[in-house]
Design brief:
Subcellular location: Nucleus, Nucleolus
Pfam families: UTP15_C, WD40
CATH class of the largest domain: Mainly Beta
Keywords: Nucleus, Repeat, rRNA processing, WD repeat
Oligomer: single chain
Protein name: U3 small nucleolar RNA-associated protein 15 homolog
Number of strands: 28
CATH topology of the largest domain: Methylamine Dehydrogenase, Chain H
Strand content: 25-35%
């Protein structure tokens, strides 16, 4: 009796993801820690000084979290209604936040009660920040105004009412202590100088502006609104440098890494995109469970924190770098010890002793060897095999068809098993590498279970899905044939024109030769 030959699984090349240095770097973060807040997380801000705690604004509270703590180490809750945009000062000692009642509150990190309250806005204040001189605060509210406040006296210095819609974002220049920028739902970004009574520059973003960011050098400005992230050159009067459209929904937040070489953008499409600030191409992407409202990176890029609409705070820490310490293990034999003699060619007088190789068979191979067709098919219809290695399932089906036992293996199944079969066939029948085998399988399943159609709503639904998938594939094939016909016509036309040009060139050359001979 001949030895059993295992089923040959056709190997198909896979289009793998391109592994770059950025991919390896951003994958170097640990499994995220999930922290539940009381409401949507509208702002995350890291302290600029060690130990790099971060403030999370959600609902009517501001929570201060330690670097690795999952519980807040401090809470500011002196708000009547929702709190917005808690922001640290550059020295990490003060924290300013807006609120739904239009009052701006200034907190000392070591205390609980507000040090100052700034009243002047008539509607909610969504944007608060410190100027780089550390003694002034700028704010933006839903009353369309952008105000500048003096911290020591708690008074308003100047108020700008140039926006025509809600002011929802802003940032301050780190180079010039008098310059700050605001973004509004009126589609504009305005640059203000505290020494003037009006804005010094207006940039038209084209969509309601959700976030603005100024590079540390102060020369480049990034604005986010709608599905667009736009980069502007401030030194050239607000000239547009690049417009990025990599998100499918509204972009809500922006962030830079510590070196300024990577730009992060979060969106309602549940993705955080990471761009290179030299080429402005996406170098990596993170996917999250729900829509993203805020994102922040720690000053040393050790922690990335993302706030979402469902109140979940997603915290990722970088894995510690492994130290290359010399192990004290016993020295192993050299590689050449193991490969010694492998390339030796036996001579005529040598006596060769062959060592029998034990072949380990898979479960489906063992069942096929014992002619248990139905059980062999069940073995390859398990979810891990169907999802990750569908080529194994198709190879077994092809072997059963070759043996002539595929119909008997498909017959006699209950509702759950038929549902599993039809789900696999409907999903994979459109793949070119599986189509020849699965079309035959689909034909047999239809013939076997046609009498029971209408008895199970689940099976009927899968049959409809299969019909829809095959119908769409036929439509695609027809469109492709039409395109091929058009391309053949174009290529034929180009070939005819080329032949005509060659004939004309040849005839002109002969005429010139004849004329030359007559002259001689």
């Amino acid at each position: 009796m001949a030895a059993y030959k295992p089923v040959v699984v056709q190997a198909c090349p896979k289009l793998g993801e391109r592994i770059t240095q950025d991919t390896l770097y951003w994958r170097g973060y640990k499994t995220p820690v999930q922290i539940k807040e009381f409401g949507a997380v509208n702002k995350i801000d890291f302290s600029p000084v060690p130990p790099y705690n971060y403030a999370v604004t959600a609902s009517s509270r501001i929570h201060i979290y330690g670097r690795y703590s999952q519980e807040p180490i401090k809470t500011f809750s002196r708000f009547r209604d929702a709190a917005y945009c808690a922001t640290y000062r550059d020295d990490g000692r003060l924290l300013a936040a807006g609120s739904e009642d239009g009052v701006i509150r200034l907190f000392d990190i070591s205390g609980k009660a507000p040090l100052r309250q700034f009243e002047g806005h008539t509607k909610p204040v969504h944007q608060v920040g410190f100027l780089s001189d550390k003694y002034r605060i700028f704010s933006g509210g839903d009353d369309y105004s952008s105000n500048l406040w003096d911290i020591p006296s708690a008074t308003e210095i100047v108020s700008y009412s140039e926006h025509t819609d809600y002011v929802r974002c802003g940032c301050a220049s780190k180079v010039n202590a008098d310059v700050f920028i605001t973004g509004s739902y009126d589609h504009t970004v305005k640059l203000f100088d505290a020494r003037t009574k009006s804005s010094v520059m207006t940039i038209e973003h084209g969509h309601p502006v959700e976030s603005v960011l100024l590079f540390p050098s102060g020369g480049l400005l990034v604005s986010a609104g709608g599905r667009y992230v736009k980069v502007w050159d401030v030194l050239k009067g607000g000239q547009l440098l690049v417009s990025l459209k990599n998100h499918h929904k509204t972009v809500t937040c922006l962030c830079l890494n510590s070196s300024g070489q990577r730009l992060l953008s979060g969106s309602l499409d549940r993705h955080v995109k990471i761009y290179s600030t030299t080429s402005y191409k996406v170098v990596h992407s993170f996917n999250y469970a729900t829509s993203i409202l805020s994102v922040a990176l720690s000053p040393e890029d050790e922690t990335i924190v993302v706030g979402m609409t469902n109140g979940v705070l997603n915290v990722k820490h970088r894995k510690p770098e492994e130290k290359n310490e010399k192990s004290q293990k016993k020295r192993q034999p050299a590689y050449r010890t193991y490969v010694k003699g492998r390339t030796y060619m036996p001579k005529q007088e040598d006596f060769c002793v062959s060592k029998p190789v034990k072949r380990v068979l898979r479960k489906y191979d063992k069942l096929l060897r014992s002619f248990q067709s139905s059980k062999a098919l069940d073995a390859v219809l398990e979810p891990p095999i169907m999802l990750h290695t569908p080529e194994v399932t198709v190879a077994v089906m092809q072997e059963l068809h070759r043996r002539g036992t595929l119909r008997s293996a498909l017959a006699g199944r209950d509702e759950k098993q038929v549902n599993l079969l039809l789900t696999f066939v409907a999903r994979r029948v459109i793949e070119p590498r599986f189509t020849p085998v699965l079309v035959t399988v689909a034909d047999m399943i239809t013939d076997i279970y046609q009498p029971v159609v209408g008895q199970s709503a689940i099976v009927d639904k899968q049959f409809l899905k299969l019909q829809e998938a095959i119908g769409k594939e036929i439509d695609y094939q027809e469109e492709l044939l039409e395109v091929l016909g058009m391309m053949d016509t174009l290529f034929a036309t180009f070939t005819k024109k080329r032949d005509m040009c060659l004939e004309e060139n040849k005839s002109n050359g002969l005429t010139e030769i004849v004329e030359t001979n007559m002259n001689y």
